[in-house]
User: Fold this.
Amino acid sequence: MARDFVLACVILVASSAVGLASNYLRQNPLTLIRKDVPLRPADPVRPNGRREVSPTASRPTGTTDQPGAGGPSDASKDGEATLEQVAAHLTAGTAFFIDAREPNEYAEGHFRGAINAPSSAIFENADAVTSMVGIDQPVIIYCGGGECEASHNVADALVRYYGYTSVSIYTKGWEEASASEALADYIVRREDQP
Amino acid sequence: MNGRLPTSWRTVVRGLALVAVAGVFLYAAQSKIIEPRQFVVSIKNYRILPESLLHLAALTLPWVELGAAIALLLPRTRRAGGILILGMLTMFVCAVSYSALYQGYNIDCGCFGKDSAQAGLKTIALDLGLIAATLIGILLPEKKSGIIGDFSIETADSAA
Assistant:
């Protein structure tokens, strides 16, 4: 029995070593120690399409500024987009939206023009995203809302592995959006489709 | 014929259990080896491992699954492979119990890449079945060594 445990340890170590070695044969090897990569939010915009500090901030002019600096848009400092920011981007068409839910949920309803890139198959759908969205273009990712981790996973993958520089998460997601009158015009539902 | 079955039922059950468990682990390992980044997401969803260890786990675990599955199929390393597989299955049952059942996270189990089912009682039941099959595969007495197991035909003459 002791021999079996020793052999099990040998297989464990040898397999792990092969796994680590194979990593360096990949085109884009993973770092062995994963570091936290903070999101950089998509710049808030005004409905007229010009970027500003905050779509809800009462500043005299709406000029380009550091994202999330001051005012109610502070929520976007950590890469989170609010309902107002989402509405502003949808109105102005200044951000790409990625729906991180599963295809069946996406089919039930989604933001007009949103790309479906479910968290369960991020890297299979990555080509669809990278071919449509430049890495410096603002991206807002959403999922079901609440405890949903899918949008965080997709956002992390886009920033970490594909180098996207302007990614926000609409944390309250579909739960809030589907009930919001402000976003009703930007939502495509299954029953609306021919 | 002396009333015994021409092939020992133990041999068949044992062989089937070994092939089934090894097959599941080989299938589970391949998609994770091909795309470890997706497996990183699966492990992260459990919210058990610290962020810094996610890549390390995603790079090594699938290869350990592969190594253990191959070891399970080889007579000389069968018990060692079984020990590894039992260890991984026990670890997985604990992880699913903690994250999906205790914490209530709505997550994919991450068992088979993108084809994974939702983590919960069904995955725990599948794991317990695999644990039982592994125990059958390594604990049922061996008659004769073969590549996969003892599939030797027990004839009436040899049994006599």
About this structure: Residues 30 and 62 of chain B are 7 Å apart (CA to CA). Residues 145-160 of chain B have pLDDT under 50 and may be disordered. Residues 9-139 of chain B form one domain.
